[in-house]
Structure formats: C-alpha cells, structure tokens
C-alpha cells in the first residue's frame, strides 16, 4: 500500500474518532447524561483507536523500512518524497483536532465529577444533620428547633 493510501486511511479513521469525540462532548455537556449511550460511544471509540493504531504502526514500519529517520521529521520527509505532503499535513491537523476534542472531553468529565462530588457531600452532610428516632420523628439537633411539638 502506498504512503498516500495509508495517510488517506488514517484520515478516514481519524474522522471517525473525531465524530465520536464530538458526540461524546454533546452527551457530556447535556443536563442529563445518557450513561448507556456514553458507554457505547466509548466502546466504538476504543475500536476506532485500535484501528488507527494499526494503521499508524504500518505507516511507521514502512517509514523505517525505507530508511527514513524516526519521528515527525522522517515522516514529513517520507511524505514529501512520496508526493503526499499535503495528505501528511491533513493527517496531522486531524490528529491535533482529535487531541483538542479529547482534552475538552476530559475537562468536561472532570467538571461533572466535581459537581457530583459536591452534590454527594451535600447529601451526606444533610443526612448526618437529620436523624430519626425510634418513633420515626426527627430528633432535635443542637442549634435546631424541635418541630415535633
């Protein structure tokens, strides 16, 4: 397979990952998160990333086999020599976009986790302040009025 074809295949796979990341972002930004849909997206995303990794491994091995230097400089030179520098640059741009989206989604997850933690702490604190006696009535708490009169 030519380098140009490999890069085009990588771009298609990156586009699939980007699409899933955008769907994930929409779900994470929603007021009510659909956990099942989020889990399904995560599963699809994992498969796409594995396919992308396989393509990248193949591209890297071709680059190495043809005697190009390791890393981005060697990849750029290989693409330039093969006449597909434009495809290489498009692949890099898609990779950067996927990285930005993934970072943003990670920040959304962190925000949600923080909100959930604060909510759970509030519930726990409220539950500790209100205890019930054997009669099922709220016991008087220090500093609180007894409303069972």
Overview of the structural elements:
Required for the efficient initiation of filament assembly. InterPro entries: FlgN-like, FlgN-like_sf. Belongs to the FlgN family. The structure is a single chain. The model has no long low-confidence stretch (mean pLDDT 88). The longest helix has 45 residues, at 85-129. The chain has a single domain, classed as FlgN-like (Methane Monooxygenase Hydroxylase, Chain G, domain 1), CATH 1.20.58. Helices cover 77% and strands 0% of the residues. By secondary structure, the chain is an all-alpha fold. It has helices at residues 3-29, 35-65, 71-81, 85-129. The N and C termini lie far apart (85 Å). The protein contains four helices and no strands.
Strand tally: 0
Low-confidence stretches: none
Succession of helices and strands: HHHH
Global geometry: rod-shaped
The major beta sheet can be summarized as: none
Helix percent reads over 70%
The end-to-end span amounts to 85 Å
Structural class: mainly alpha
Q: What is the CATH level 1 assignment? A: Mainly Alpha
Figure out the total of helices: 4
Task: Tell me the fraction of residues in β-strands, as a range.
Answer: under 5%
Round the mean pLDDT to the nearest integer and report it: 88
CATH superfamily: FlgN-like
Number of domains: 1
- Gyration radius from CA atoms, angstroms: 26 Å
Q: Tell me the CATH topology.
A: Methane Monooxygenase Hydroxylase, Chain G, domain 1
